[in-house]
Amino acid sequence: xxxxxxxxxxxxxxxxxxxxxxxxxxxxxxxxxxxxxxxxxxxxxxxxxxxxxxxxxxxxxxxxxxxxxxxxxxxxxxxxxxxxxxxxxxxxxxxxxxxxxxxxxxxxxxxxxxxxxxxxxxxxxxxxxxxxxxxxxxxxxxxxxxxxxxxxxxxxxxxxxxxxxx
Length: 166
Ligand code: SF4
Ligand code: SF4
Description:
Elements: H1 2-16, E1 40-42, H2 57-61, E2 67-73, E3 85-93, H3 102-106, E4 112-114, E5 129-131, H4 132-135
Antiparallel strand pairs: 1-4, 2-3, 3-5
The structure holds iron/sulfur cluster (2 copies).
């Protein structure tokens, strides 16, 4: 009995002089691993056009049925994304999402990306639905906002040429 107590105290004593590993969250945060899957964002091209073309492949790939996409037609006078269509509605239900990343893998334009934000908490179910406005990243240039008017035929291709298809 006494030996066990001494062993226990020795273990405690051994750890007294080791550096503390407790992080005072939320005042301090620890960087996540590069491949960490956090909250999704919808990306834009450098010119401000949205990468999402409303194809719904992400929704089809999602095992949790967490994504809802509704597509509408682009015109050169009112253009959101390259190609024929854009996502007029894009929603992710974070209560369903299991952060598997299948949506990211399925996306042909690399529009949906799981980034490093893990601070997701809600007081009601409605707040757990991330709509397009919450997901879409801001444009690099404030003047490049969608929809935009572009020259006729300038953005006919929905999927850009890949730099390194391999
Ligand atoms: S990360 Fe997985 S579960 Fe979450 S929306 Fe994407 S495919 Fe669905
Ligand atoms: S995020 Fe990608 S896969 Fe999903 S609708 Fe948009 S373009 Fe298609």
